[in-house]
Amino acid sequence: MTVNDDSFTTWNHREEIAESMIPIIGKLHRERDVTVLLHSRSLVNKSVVSILKTHRFARQIAGEELSVTETMPFLQALTTLDLGPSQIDIGMLAATYKSDDRGLSIEQFTAEAVAGATGANKIERREGRDVVLYGFGRIGRLVARLLIEKAGSGNGLRLRAIVVRGGGAQDIVKRASLLRRDSIHGQFQGTITVDEENSTILANGNEIKVIYANDPSELDYTAYGIKNAILIDNTGKWRDREGLSQHLRPGIDKVVLTAPGKGDVPNIVHGVNHDTIKPDEQILSCASCTTNAIVPPLKAMDDEYGVLRGHVETVHSFTNDQNLLDNYHKSERRGRSAPLNMVITETGAASAVAKALPDLKARITGSSIRVPVPDVSIAILNLQLAREASREEVLDYLRDVSLTSPLRRQIDFISAPDAVSSDFIGSRHASIVDAGATKVEGDNAILYLWYDNEFGYSCQVIRVVQHVSGVEYPTYPAPAV
User: Fold this and answer.
1) Contact 327/361 with Cβ under 8 angstroms?
2) Could you tell me whether strands 129-134 and 157-164 are parallel, antiparallel, or unpaired per DSSP bridges?
3) What average pLDDT does the structure give for the chain?
4) Is the peptide bond before 477 cis (omega within 30 degrees of 0)?
5) What pLDDT is recorded for position 481?
6) Dihedral over Cα of 309, 314, 320, 322: its sign
7) Which of 73, 146, 435, 458 could make a disulfide contact with 415, Cβ separation 3.0–4.6 Å?
């Protein structure tokens, strides 16, 4: 047998193991509301090749590839336990087991590591929470995809309705088509059918009512059987408490804005300050995509090194707020053609840092340039640290943060030397540290942070909604603090 034959045999063996993982992962998700993760990446509804690629990705972070032969025993051990709703990271289980010297079996170690989700400790499956989308643009449709994806267990969040202004003939058909196919994010994973007569979209078994209204005051959501719902406003039309309060109609309990909030509206970056949300808070904001990209790594750097001052320059993909060709716009430069120009514009991300990180004493300034790409942006975070550090030290620290810290769902890490913006389309993290571009000299550190300003941000929105709805289940093994 040749070397190539040996490699192919190994690949086939791993394919076979990954294939056998799929029904186990699916059964845990449907029957017990357990989401199986691998280094913070969900394996639910993933293909054989996707599972193998996710394992291989661990090599970029941890320095060596993680094999399905290593994680499969931990997955099998989970099936023997009396598990309750939770998220369980088999990548972390495998990694921590390697460093454990007590001589425990995999079964014993796994039972101990997830003890908080088993037996008398397990939490009960919670009743699903209704969700309404107000607006159905770029963020609205991606949030819809995520809500539908996460409805597989039958619990958790349930997308019940979408509110839009009427758009004329075949309005619902055209909106469903935009949900079905996306030029950037590809095909919807599943099936979509339209019932025009009843103004309903059926997506993977989820019945979603399309409600036409020009103003929030026209609506009584209880008429559609919606109760105690969380409304996600992705229009950006109202950004202060007075305007957003218009959504607190019959059937709506809380309002979440997918844009920076004004006045006393809390700006929430999941992973950083979501635990400050008061139980009785009815109106909150998820800040901006750029704020979500820079605040987690900024917090990580301040926690370890201290930050005295900083500047963020964002190189941002163009958005629907700009013009396709030169035309009138209320802003100074945004009226110029988005696909033909680099456009200097303002960003409120730097000032928004103070709302999400009130304990940060450093002054952060910011500016932005819109560039001719349709998705994925990069934030260049230039920091003066309170102490000197080496490049290797900072990279090792950020790599560890992306793997084991409470910010591991927000911060990703990549060391690929040829990475470009399109590689990060579909990233579920708030930002991705580019190791190759990172610069550190003395007390100065410059971080290059990629982020999918559409999809990564939408994932952060969903995390906030899960938290305020009470369906954000604990993760095991617990991340290092």
Assistant:
1) no
2) parallel
3) 92
4) yes
5) 61
6) positive
7) 435
Distance (Å, rounded) from C-alpha 29 to C-alpha 35?
A: 6
Contact call for residues 196 and 219 (beta carbons, < 8 A) = no
Taking the C-alpha atoms of residue 470 and residue 158, their distance in angstroms, rounded to an integer, is 13
Strands (DSSP E) contained in 55-97 are 86-89
Find out whether 121 and 219 touch, Cβ atoms under 8 Å.
no
DSSP 336-392: SBGGG--EEE---HHHHHHHH-TT--SEEEEEEEEES-SS-EEEEEEEEESS---HH
| CATH numbers and ranges of domains, the chain | 3-121 (no CATH), 129-259 (3.40.50.720), 289-453 (3.30.360.10)
Q: What is the pLDDT of residues 7-34, one digit of tens each?
A: 778 888 999 999 999 999 999 998 888 9
- How is residue 438 annotated by DSSP? -
Tokens encoding 37: 């993760």
Residue of 78, 159, 289, 461 with catalytic role:
289
**% pLDDT > 70, the chain:** 96
Using CB atoms within 10 Å of the CB of residue 407, give its burial: 0 to 12 exposed, 13 to 18 middle, 19+ buried. Answer: buried
Q: Which one-letter amino acid corresponds to residue 130?
A: D
Q: Which two tokens stand for residue 212?
A: 């036409």
Helix (H) or strand (E) holding 134: strand 129-134
Mean pLDDT of the region 307-336: 94
Strands 307-317 and 377-385: antiparallel
Q: What is the distance between the alpha carbons of residues 132 and 436, in angstroms, rounded to a whole number?
A: 42
- Catalytic site includes residue 286: no
Find, among 130, 132, 156, 150, the residue nearest to 235 by Cα: 132
Tokens of 403: 């793997």
pLDDT tens-digit profile of 131-158? 999 999 999 999 999 999 877 655 679 9
In the prediction, which pLDDT does 1 show? Answer: 47
CB 330 within 8 A of CB 270: no
Measured CA to CA, the distance from residue 66 to residue 8 in angstroms comes to: 18
| pLDDT for the residue 471 | 75
pLDDT digits (tens, 9 = 90+) for 46-59: 999 999 988 887 66
Q: How large is the greatest C-alpha to C-alpha distance in the chain, in angstroms?
A: 74
Helices 3-32 and 68-78: angle between axes, nearest 10 degrees: 20
